[in-house]
């Protein structure tokens, strides 16, 4: 074997935790030379370390006389990988130890083999202490732990629990290409285990691991991968034939595709995003699914730069946000996102929302959405908008309770990601 999967994990963790890079973007290249089994192992271990990082650091800190620095820093990440294996995986302690020690050579720090060996042996021999700190117990940075505790009180424990678990794989059937029934039949023929959700007429939840590209009809665009909470967007937006619809922060196009599926007779669908590279993904996705939309690369908030003055009947604003609702899917988010990002995001959302409101027809609908669970980005954002815009009123959404401003879905609720929706109607 030419590679050492522990060293690969340590390097990936170094890039996320020391250089602020996204694990999702780093994983494919790191996994490319690996066998399928090793790919899965690297994903499981890097995700696991990120989920339990504060606990692993709580154990490691007293064992290291001083933090490692410079080019040796990566060995700290290797030690986290070692501790994770010993405490959370079924890898034999012998393999965990010897392979992790060997990784020091791959990581160009052979002189630290003795240190890694001593620390991991020590950890293996003792009963490791359990932390009292809630943030450490729940694998979160303190600021986020506090925000969620304050926002959700007694319900916070369920939120923390859901954030520590793997998310199920949701598919959305492309009704323009195949019926739900025929798709289910194709899954059954491949002996795939799945379940359905009453609230989601286009959805299938796979109850097992699967390579998406090998599922029936992938190349033919029979389905998309999309969480159940995100699948509510197009249904809530409820686009109608002959309408002009804007998907304002569209990339990679998950919701654009669904809008096109629900309203094939739509008169105009515009997918706008400020990131040109992400818009390429929109084009690829729409092409695979067999849908069409006009693509605009622009800042949604700078309407003078892209709006032709023709008002929209419906707008979906899937706003840039903290992504705190999808942490169970992307465990690096909890470390990449910082407390000071939140006010800046709230301001950006407010600015885009205010600008887009001007492009909405009187009598038109704007659906505001985020994959956040922080009230500042969600109900508080919409409350302020309603106070400042007397021509806006909030419409109830199926599934929301009467007292709430919009619908806040918490991670794990009916197997969905954390998400927020508010439907605004512009008075005539
Ligand atoms: C939550 S993601 C959208 C996900 C997408 N709606 C989907 O379902 O696939 C938010 C998007 O907002 C885009 N964005 C951020 N700031 C923007 C701005 N000022 N104008 C337009 N798009 C923006 C980002 O590039 C990102 O693609």
TrEMBL record:
Q: Which SUPFAM superfamilies match?
A: NusB-like, S-adenosyl-L-methionine-dependent methyltransferases
> Per its record, how is this protein called by name?
16S rRNA (cytosine(967)-C(5))-methyltransferase
Domain (SAM-dependent MTase RsmB/NOP-type) spans 159-427
What's its job?
Specifically methylates the cytosine at position 967 (m5C967) of 16S rRNA.
E.C. no: 2.1.1.176
Q: Which reaction does it catalyse?
A: cytidine(967) in 16S rRNA + S-adenosyl-L-methionine = 5-methylcytidine(967) in 16S rRNA + S-adenosyl-L-homocysteine + H(+)
PANTHER family documented for this protein? NOL1_NOP2_SUN FAMILY PROTEIN _ ANTITERMINATION NUSB DOMAIN-CONTAINING PROTEIN, NOP2 YEAST -RELATED NOL1/NOP2/FMU SUN DOMAIN-CONTAINING
**Active-site residues?**
371
Q: Name one GO molecular function term.
A: methyltransferase activity
Q: Family assignment?
A: Belongs to the class I-like SAM-binding methyltransferase superfamily. RsmB/NOP family.
Q: What class of enzyme is it?
A: transferase
Q: Please verify whether the record's keywords include Isomerase.
A: no
Query: Which NCBIfam families does the entry mention?
Result: PRK10901.1, PRK14902.1, rsmB
Q: Where does S-adenosyl-L-methionine bind?
A: 249-255, 273, 299, 318
Q: Which GO terms describe its biological process?
A: methylation
Q: Which gene encodes it?
A: rsmB
- Write out the entry's keywords from A to Z: Cytoplasm, Methyltransferase, RNA-binding, rRNA processing, S-adenosyl-L-methionine, Transferase
User: Where do the TM regions start and end?
Assistant: none
Q: Does the keyword rRNA processing apply?
A: yes
Q: What's the superkingdom here?
A: Bacteria
Q: Where in or outside the cell?
A: Cytoplasm
Q: Where does the UniProt entry say this protein principally localizes?
A: cytoplasm
């Amino acid at each position: 074997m030419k590679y050492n999967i522990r060293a690969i994990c340590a390097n990936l963790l170094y890039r996320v935790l020391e250089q602020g890079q996204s694990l999702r973007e780093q994983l494919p290249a790191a996994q490319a030379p690996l066998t399928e089994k090793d790919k899965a192992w690297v994903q499981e271990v890097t995700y696991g370390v990120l989920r339990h990082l504060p606990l692993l650091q709580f154990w490691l800190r007293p064992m290291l006389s001083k933090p490692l620095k410079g080019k040796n820093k990566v060995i700290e990440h290797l030690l986290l990988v070692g501790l994770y294996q010993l405490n959370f995986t079924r890898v034999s302690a012998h393999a965990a130890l010897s392979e992790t020690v060997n990784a020091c050579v791959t990581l160009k720090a052979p002189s630290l083999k003795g240190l890694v060996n001593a620390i991991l042996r020590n950890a293996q021999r003792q009963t490791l202490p359990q932390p009292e700190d809630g943030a450490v117990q729940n694998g979160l940075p303190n600021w986020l732990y506090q925000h969620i505790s304050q926002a959700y009180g007694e319900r916070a424990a369920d939120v923390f629990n859901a954030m520590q678990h793997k998310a199920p794989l949701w598919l959305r059937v492309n009704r323009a290409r195949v019926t739900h029934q025929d798709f289910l039949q194709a899954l059954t023929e491949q002996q795939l285990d799945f379940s359905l959700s009453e609230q989601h007429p286009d959805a299938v939840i796979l109850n097992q691991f699967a390579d998406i590209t090998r599922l029936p009809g992938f190349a033919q665009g029979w389905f998309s991968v999309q969480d159940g909470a995100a699948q509510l967007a197009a249904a809530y937006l409820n686009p109608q034939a002959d309408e002009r619809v804007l998907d304002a922060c569209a990339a990679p196009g998950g919701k654009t595709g669904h809008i096109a599926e629900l309203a094939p007779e739509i008169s105009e669908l515009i997918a706008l995003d400020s990131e040109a590279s992400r818009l390429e993904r929109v084009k690829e996705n729409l092409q695979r699914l067999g849908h069409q939309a006009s693509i605009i690369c622009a800042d949604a908030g700078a309407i003078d730069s892209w709006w032709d003055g023709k008002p929209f009947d419906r707008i979906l604003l899937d706003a840039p946000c903290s992504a705190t609702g999808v942490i169970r899917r992307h465990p690096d988010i909890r470390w990449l996102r910082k407390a000071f990002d939140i006010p800046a995001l709230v301001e950006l959302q407010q600015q885009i929302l205010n600008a887009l409101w001007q492009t909405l027809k009187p009598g038109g609908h704007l659906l505001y959405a985020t994959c956040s669970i922080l009230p500042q980005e969600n109900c508080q954002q919409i409350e302020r908008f309603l106070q400042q815009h007397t021509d806006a009123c909030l419409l109830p959404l199926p599934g929301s309770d009467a007292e709430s401003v919009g619908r806040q879905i918490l991670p794990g609720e009916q197997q969905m990601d954390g998400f927020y929706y508010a439907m605004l109607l512009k008075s005539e």
